[in-house]
């Protein structure tokens, strides 16, 4: 979408989109949506869970770039663009310097903070400042909620970066996992950073990273990360490098279940891994396993686990056939313990026998069986269909 066409579009539908985030308005109870697809939809699913209480659904995009690193767009326009696209939480995360490629300067880091503070509207819209530590071989890591940033000059490898994040008290996430060849030293585990490494990107731009690198002999990044011991939630991001922050439909987003739409509220939800990855705007996913919400621990050894899944995207998707796939550790690719047929617009309940001896985590993947995964894994794998969303994991604790 060009800047002119977006302005024309916002003139017609922007009021509806802004109402979606305005307390007390008719649309405040529904999620916003990207508006580049036709016909334009004003709202997505309701923000209230059908199975849990005490939190509200907010859609976030936590990974974006501007002219301050390798993006094309004016940073002064980014936060408003994401707000107009129906997002509730947005971050700018320009690259730190990557050897010969210039990234953030101190003045640009300060400016990012000023822009975020100006855009932040507590209770309505949360604007965050972050940065992307970038290594051409090890990989890229996003860091949020710090007062400073670091680059390869100060943090040349994973151990030094982890020490820096631990000292500054921020939170972080593994970006587009599998794209860079060394994959964070194959996700080598650092117990001291477990609580602060909160995210693993499963959707980046339009790509599903479940099997990224499989065709060249790598294992699933999801398996490599979680089997190494990390307790990351799962995210979707746009990773925008152009000028269409928050647009178009089909790029990654993260659904955050927070007590309030403020910086502190989002931080608490991220620390609790109370969020899901999606590449569909306006989607609501909530799920419990034996009464525990996604991102939590199950004091469990062996037996039946009762899953309850709330899945909705508003009137447009009511009755749409979808699959719920129960992912377990496996060795190089996740094993699928069960595939449950469901549809959007309903609550689905099912029971799956699990054994903690088979691995310490379980994830639900929501998929569209009518479309193929653009990055397939093993031949015949149930997840070679089109990924719609991932819950954050549950961890089985014996």
Automatic annotation (TrEMBL):
Signal sequence extent: 1-28
Polymerase/histidinol phosphatase N-terminal domain: residues covered: 60-137
Highest taxon in the source lineage: Bacteria
Assigned keywords, A-Z: Signal
PROSITE patterns noted in UniProt: TAT
SMART domains recorded: POLIIIAc
Protein name from the UniProt record: PHP domain-containing protein
Organism listed in the record: Actinoplanes flavus
């Amino acid at each position: 979408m060009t800047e002119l066409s977006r302005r024309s579009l916002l003139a017609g539908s922007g009021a509806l989109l802004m109402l979606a985030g305005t307390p007390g308005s008719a649309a405040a109870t529904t999620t916003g949506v990207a508006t580049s697809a036709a016909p334009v939809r004003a709202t997505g699913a309701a923000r209230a869970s059908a199975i849990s209480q005490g939190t509200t659904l907010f859609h976030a995009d936590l990974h974006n770039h501007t002219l301050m690193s390798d993006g094309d767009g004016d940073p002064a326009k980014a936060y408003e663009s994401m707000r107009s696209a129906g997002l509730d939480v947005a971050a700018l995360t320009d690259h730190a310097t990557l050897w010969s490629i210039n990234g953030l300067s101190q003045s640009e880091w300060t400016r990012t903070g000023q822009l975020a503070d100006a855009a932040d509207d507590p209770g309505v819209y949360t604007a965050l400042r972050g940065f992307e530590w970038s290594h051409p071989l090890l990989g890229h890591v996003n860091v949020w909620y710090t007062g400073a940033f670091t680059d390869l000059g100060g943090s040349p490898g994973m151990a030094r970066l982890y020490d820096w994040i631990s000292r500054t008290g921020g939170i972080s996430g593994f970006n587009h996992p599998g794209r860079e060849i060394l994959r964070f030293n194959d996700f080598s585990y650092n117990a001291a950073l477990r609580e602060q490494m909160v995210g693993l990107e499963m959707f980046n731009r339009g790509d599903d990273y479940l099997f990224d690198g499989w065709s060249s002999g790598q294992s699933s990044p999801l398996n490599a990360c979680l089997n190494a011991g990390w307790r990351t939630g799962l995210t979707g991001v746009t990773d925008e490098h152009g000028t269409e922050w928050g647009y178009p439909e089909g790029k990654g987003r993260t659904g955050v279940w927070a007590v309030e739409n403020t910086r502190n509220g989002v931080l608490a939800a991220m620390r609790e891994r109370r969020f899901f990855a999606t590449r569909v705007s306006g989607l609501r996913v909530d799920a419990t396993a034996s009464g525990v919400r996604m991102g939590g621990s199950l004091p469990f050894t062996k037996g039946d686990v009762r899953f309850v899944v709330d899945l909705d995207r508003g009137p447009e998707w009511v009755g749409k056939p979808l699959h719920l796939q129960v992912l377990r550790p496996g060795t190089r690719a996740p094993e699928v313990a069960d595939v449950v047929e469901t549809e959007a617009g309903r609550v689905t309940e099912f029971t799956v026998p699990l054994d903690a001896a088979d691995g310490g985590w379980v994830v639900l993947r929501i998929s569209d069986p009518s479309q193929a995964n653009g990055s397939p894994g093993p031949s015949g794998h149930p997840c070679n269909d089109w990924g719609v969303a991932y819950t954050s994991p549950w961890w089985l604790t014996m």
